[in-house]
Each structure stands twice: as C-alpha cells, then as structure tokens.
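job 3f2a | input accepted
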Amino acid sequence: MNFGRAPRSSPSRRLRAVLPVAVAAGALTLSACGGGGTSGGGGKTGFVSNTGGISTVAKADRRSVNDLSGETLEGKKLDVADYKGKVVVLNVWGSWCGPCLAEAPHFAKVSKETASQGVAFVGINTRDLEKQPAIKFEQDFGITYPSLYDPAGKLLVYGFPKGSLNPQAIPSTIVLDRNGKIAARSLKAVDEEQLRKLIDPLIAEK
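job 3f2a | predicted structure (206 res):
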C-alpha cells in the first residue's frame, strides 16, 4: 500500500480540464492584433457594417451579453452586469499588442470625458500570462478604468452569445447600450474620432 502517492487522474479527466483553455486560446490565435474583420454571424442578423470597420445592430435586434465577470488586474471582483443603465465600452487588449498601444491614449482620454454622460469603460486584458506588464501598460497610458484579467481568453469565447457581434481580433471594442445589449463593435484599433462614433449614438438614445 502506498499512502504517499496522490491518486492519478484519468486521461479523460485531464482532457476535460485543459479543453476550455485550449479552445479559448485557439479562438484568437489567427486574429491577434488583427487589422479588422467582418461581422460575426450570418443571415438575418441585423448587423450594419460601414467601410470604417464599425458594425452596429438595430435596437430591436440587439442581444444581451452572457456572464462577463471575474477578477480585475488589481484583484477586485467585477461584473459587467452591474453597469446596467450605463453605456458600456468593452475594450479587448493585451500589453504585448502593438495596435493596443496605439489606441490606448484615445481610450484614456475619452473614458474620462464621457464619464459624466453615463459611459463606463471596462477592459478585458487577454493573453498576458502575468499581471504586471498589463498593470504597467495602464499606468503608462493613464488608464483609470478597470480591466478584467482573462489570460486564457475564456470571457471572449463564452461571454458573448453565438452569432452576435463578438470579439474576433485583438484589439476589439464592443459597446453595450444602457440595457446591457450589444450595439456596436470595432475589430481594429480606433482613434478618438472613431471611438466617439461608436459611443455618441448610444449616449443620445432614449
């Protein structure tokens, strides 16, 4: 008898434990730091894309996000559902991503300017295997809003309903209306003007 050896897990159990992370990481392998993309889904989705790479959804056709909650880079709990009643800007980024570096100053500026208009910014930091580079990124660019820490990309795979406007590149920006429904998306780095085009119509919505 050997009381010192831990029971060995079966191959099938190990596979089940690894599979979700593998799927999440693989989903973004080809699109990391991409320069744009097409709308997700097909058929009668209600998506409208313009040549600037911004996709929008008519109010009647919008869908709610799934669970987008977890721990922030600072170790605090955050649930995007708690922001219902505000326009929410979700920015998918990584400290290793060149286009994310380019757009970060615009996000820092616009997030501060629109806070009084009922707009909340939340980052989703992905594929940073350690927190410190991502925290330094935020400090360097003066980003004061929180970011969910999602190194394996699970939120990107499971946080958005299939066939909706979902993140398909890094960076991606998705904007939720005041009811927590997906209203607009960009699959590329955006500047201040483009970011305003995503947000302003939703601020004005009744």
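job 3f2a | Confidence is low (pLDDT under 50) at residues 1-30, 35-47.
job 3f2a | closed
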